[in-house]
Design a protein that fits this description.
Blueprint: E1 2-6, E2 10-16, E3 19-24, E4 27-31, E5 38-44, H1 52-61, H2 63-69, E6 70-74, E7 79-85, E8 88-93, E9 98-102, E10 108-114, H3 122-128, E11 140-145, E12 149-155, E13 158-163, E14 166-171, E15 177-183, E16 187-197, E17 203-212, H4 217-222
Antiparallel strand pairs: 1-4, 2-3, 2-5, 6-9, 7-8, 7-10, 11-14, 12-13, 12-15, 16-17
Domain Band: 144-217
Subcellular location: Membrane
Organism: Providencia rettgeri
Length: 223
């Protein structure tokens, strides 16, 4: 008989001849191991993803353990995921992600979202613009359109919309999003030092100054 103590914040898997036999939670356990053939693997419940190879093995051969002791994340090709640690957004997961975590109280939560709409809601945009670094934020395009400017939204190179001053967010997944900032204020254009030769062979030096602004941005850039 072998006695094993599993500390709080740990979980263990026993194996014999390479096959997992038991999952042990915190506490004292007595195991029948007369020939000392059992091995014990300890895992810390630290909100780190389980090794991919082990995760696939558990899903295939010990689905009951996965259901009871794990958080299983399997994203479709048109979904993204959000991992929250202690109710704070920690990571954004791209489509087709597969992750397995040991349950650790209620400290880790997962939300899934369809990519049917590529627009990021304003609350999440504000989080992504905050000082806290969120892993996976490169999946988002955040664009700020200043006052007296407009933003020309392009998806896969095609003009889709004209954005008024404000902050906008789009998922950079499955499609290429771009926002080109256009200044709509009155602009000055100067052409200086142009020399013109008249019919009577007199050289004139001309300086040209013009003021202009966009009247119809979409029409201008569509042509």
């Amino acid at each position: 008989m072998k006695k094993i103590n599993i500390a709080q914040g740990q979980i263990a898997l026993t194996a014999k001849n390479g096959d997992f036999k038991q999952l042990l939670t915190a506490g004292e356990h007595h195991l029948n191991d007369w020939f000392n053939r059992l091995t014990v693997s300890l895992f810390t419940l630290d909100n780190e993803a389980i090794d991919e190879k082990l995760a696939d093995h558990l899903r295939q051969f010990h689905s009951d353990w996965v259901d009871e002791h794990c958080i299983d994340i399997i994203l479709a090709d048109d979904e993204i995921g959000f991992i929250y640690l202690h109710n704070s957004l920690a990571e954004i997961l791209p489509p087709a992600t597969r992750r397995l975590y040991w349950k650790n109280g209620n400290s880790l939560k997962v939300e899934l979202q369809s990519l049917e709409n590529s627009v990021i809601d304003s609350a999440l945009v504000a989080r992504l613009m905050g000082k806290k670094r969120i892993k996976g934020n490169e999946l988002a395009l955040i664009s700020q359109v200043p006052a007296w400017h407009v933003g020309m939204l392009k998806i896969d190179g095609e003009i889709q919309d004209l954005l008024q001053p404000g902050t906008y967010g789009y998922w950079k997944i499955n499609h290429k999003h771009e926002v080109e900032i256009i200044d709509t204020r009155l602009q000055s254009l100067e052409v200086s030092g142009q020399e013109i030769l008249t019919k009577d062979k007199v050289t004139l030096r001309v300086n040209l100054c013009a003021n202009w602004r966009y009247q119809d941005v979409l029409l201008t850039f569509s042509n």
